[in-house]
Amino acid sequence: MTLAVSSCLLGEHIRFDGGHKRDRFITDELSAFADFTPFCPEHLAFGTPRPSVRLVRIDDALRVQSNKSGEDLTDTLLQSSDSELEKLASKPLCGIIFKSKSPSCGMKSAKLYLENGYCEGKEDGVFMHICRERFPLLPMEEEGRLEDAWLRENFVMQIFAYDAYERFKATNPSIGNWEMWSPTGATIRWRLCWGYTNWDLKPLFHEKVPSNGPATS
Ligand code: SF4
What we know:
2 domains, 4-stranded mixed sheet, disordered C terminus
């Protein structure tokens, strides 16, 4: 299985200050089951080291500004984000893990500032936001949330279910295959696909739903 991961979480010295944020769950545990496709839109745009950036709301639009000079870097970061997005789109991804709190990679965890310097709240980072739009069904998490045992288990189930479903689809299954895959021992995989990724597979099971309504267990 292939996962896309923020490069700094893999231990690459690619942060604005030349440091990294290696995450041992990813590099030491998930690596036994997955190959990683790294990405870093900021390194691609500005190199390393580089001035840090932040999200700023200006006239109801979100912009990216240099913390050092105040220069508007939105267009440059969007360009590199598009390039990284195309790279990810060419891979058979089963999920993405983002670095939390980053103005590029954070999932609703990047600080959003007003022009007067006050923090207004938190938002998606620039790159994370376009990934969310491009891959609406793909499991996504950030490393900070994966420290929570339940969220981690949930994410791991999602990526394995996604992988199983993609492999099954790749066999060009007939309707008969779909039926065989469901009511036997693989039912659990259906439930994972169904419950965690919002695929609407219910029509395929129409004849399996009892007349008194769907099973509740
Ligand atoms: S958080 Fe994202 S943009 Fe920042 S260093 Fe890590 S991969 Fe690059």
